[in-house]
Amino acid sequence: MDPKVDSNFGTEIILLAEQLAGHSDDPEALTLAYLTRAHQTAGAEIAGSMIEAGMQVRIDAVGNVIGRYAAADPQAPILITGSHFDTVRHGGRFDGRLGILTPLVVARHLHQRGERLPFHLDVVAFAEEEGLRFRSAFLASSALVGQFDFALLDHKDADGITMREAMCAAGLPGTEEAIAACAVNPRRLLGYIEVHIEQGPVLLERGLPVGVVTSIAGNVRKRVTVSGLASHAGTTPMAMRRDALAAASEMVLAVERRCGDPRYAAQALVGTVGMAAVPQGAANVVPGRCEFSLDVRAADDATRDAAVTDLDAEFARIAERRGVELSVSQTMRVPCAACSPPLMDRLAGSIDAAGLPVLRLASGAGHDAMVMARVTDVCMLFVRCGNGGISHNPAETMTAEDADIAARVLLDFLRRTAADLG
Ligand code: HGY
Ligand code: MN
Ligand code: MN
């Protein structure tokens, strides 16, 4: 451990996270959707902190705030780090933000010491990852890798505002040309490292402040519609019903059973029905229609896809037996992303140098890193999540001590990267 390292990294990170959480669409709890007024002021605050940390700052055409701690040579290669600053509805203050604020305080420390790196360190505050406003996740990182889906520009939010209109209202060009220009040149990249709160209980249970992510679970999402027959709740005999909600309920339990099978626990298979609705439902009507979402993830695509195939078949059997119709459409498919073994080893070296055991663990949550992995080598540092590991909840928390360790590990990682460049 470098004795000259500022020991206040952790306190600074917690303070900055609290300040940033002051920008919210909802006064009740932290909610920051893409390009709202609060989102724009949050971006401006991040930009101000980056300038103060000695970085050159620009905002790209999708609203990413990019701070560069520049190398002396303008042609130097680039190491990207960062994460997102948008949130889910009533989210936590560290999800995403930790991955912006940690490199920010580390860059400030390097700046104050006058310590230059032989590569540009680009800290990207990704404007959108959660998909809250336009139901399309990873907007910001997909622009950075040159894979933004331009059809999304015409998608509307709940108030009927298109993404293009939202961009223009926020002072962004809102053109395909400008968004295409967000793309990085992969040939200049050394890789991507993301610091993120674990959002689960593994590190907490093991008593460890940080861990190295091995892979990021891919996601299959589906929208399922079950159609039965709406009929009178008082007069339709139980044996004659075609109850869409009862059928859907069996399907939800089938998800729980298949994905909860202990044989797949090692592959981190999980399945969730997070939304369910009975449109036009009433207390005195047998449900004629039920719509629900399905989200299945695992540490490898084969395990996840096998579960999805089994669930498709099981849903069909349930529908057949109950005399209801089934319509299933896939709304998202993101492949698993593997972290780069050399970058993982370098990160493990930094954790080891901090006197800590190295735990390698898979990520069940999605991260900007999985999109960046399409163009460059990636790795991730997970940081212990308090409160039993709860996240996507205002109760999400972490300690200043753990944030401090994360910053020191990142600083060491940057120096090792510099040393490896020779
Ligand atoms: O859904 C996810 O895994 C992420 O938090 N966006
Ligand atoms: Mn999240
Ligand atoms: Mn996140």
Structure, explained:
- The structure is a single chain.
- The chain is α+β, with helices and mostly antiparallel strands and 422 residues long.
- Strands 1, 2, 3, 4, 5, 6, 14, 15 and 16 form a nine-stranded mixed β-sheet that branches. Strands 7, 9, 10, 12 and 13 form a five-stranded antiparallel β-sheet that branches.
- It folds into two domains: 9-216 and 336-420, Zn peptidases (Aminopeptidase, 3-Layer(aba) Sandwich), CATH 3.40.630.10; 218-333, Alpha-Beta Plaits (2-Layer Sandwich), CATH 3.30.70.
- It is built from twelve helices and 16 strands.
- It starts with 8 loop residues before the first helix and ends with a helix.
- Residues 129-130, 137, 365-366 line the site of (2S)-amino(hydroxy)ethanoic acid (HGY).
Main sheet record: 9 strands, mixed
Bound ligands, named by name, code or SMILES: (2S)-amino(hydroxy)ethanoic acid, manganese (II) ion
Number of H/I helices:
12
CATH homologous superfamily of the largest domain? Zn peptidases
SS-derived structural category: alpha+beta
Q: Provide the number of structural domains.
A: 2
Order of helices and strands: HHEEEHEHHHEHEEEHEEEEHEEHEHEH
Q: What CATH architecture of the largest domain do you see? A: 3-Layer(aba) Sandwich
- On the 0 to 100 scale, the average pLDDT is 96
Low-confidence stretches: 1-6
**Cα Rg:** 23 Å
End-to-end distance: 21 Å
CATH topology of the largest domain: Aminopeptidase
Helix content: 25-40%
The percentage of residues in β strands lies in: 15-25%
* DSSP E strands, number: 16
